[in-house]
Amino acid sequence: MRIDVVTLFPDFIRDSAGLGVVGRAQERALLTVHGWNPRDHATGNYRRVDDRPFGGGPGMVMLAEPLEACLAAVRAADPAPAPVLLMSPQGRRLTQAKVRDLAALPRLILLCGRYEGLDERFVARHVDEELSIGDYVLSGGELAAAVVIDAVGRLQDGALNHAESARQDSFEDGLLDCPHYTRSGACGTEGVPPVLLSGDHAAIARWRRKQSLGRTWQRRPDLLARMALTKADRALLAA
Ligand code: ADE
């Protein structure tokens, strides 16, 4: 998969995508992340990328022209089709289901806004979808883009060392994850639920499912309300 990111801070995107699982996915050539700076495509002595908005008011708006030239350079570098996603608090909320859809695509172009946002004429012409990572406002789209890159990057085939771990993540089955305990460490088995030491794999699976259901019920009842629970799940929740 290839992800191109249009941002005034390409170093931040490159650096964060070089760490951990996503860094390893890049080393394994499962993913490439490229940063593009609209300032490199701005004209004039000051290479301006923003201006005051029509109608007045506080703050600056990102100019359409440098963004347009930058996006043209991204498309020229690789003409394969790719949806253009704008990171924005006005966007549709990112979910694990959306992450899975995005991870299946061969390519994505992410746009990071700064200031009050982008000139709406550019958005209307070029943006396929706006994505928000939550109901709060960041000072720019870079952290949101890094979230998308991480969530999508770790789902690339071969990115995770344990093939199982992505399937067992929180949200993959609509529930929150169960608690985990390390085998080694100073505490030994102290505080570890006995069932995890029993070697009874069916009982362990039931315990984990019950923990997931219980945590979701306590912390995110909204998720549970949207799920069609099986009879076995309802029995575990009631037990
Ligand atoms: N840019 C600023 N705030 C954001 C948010 N919550 N999600 C995505 N992009 C953003």
Automatic annotation (TrEMBL):
It catalyses: guanosine(37) in tRNA + S-adenosyl-L-methionine = N(1)-methylguanosine(37) in tRNA + S-adenosyl-L-homocysteine + H(+). GO terms for molecular function: tRNA (guanine(37)-N1)-methyltransferase activity. S-adenosyl-L-methionine binds at residues 113, 133-138. NCBIfam families: PRK00026.1, trmD. Belongs to the RNA methyltransferase TrmD family. Specifically methylates guanosine-37 in various tRNAs. Homodimer. This is tRNA (guanine-N(1)-)-methyltransferase.
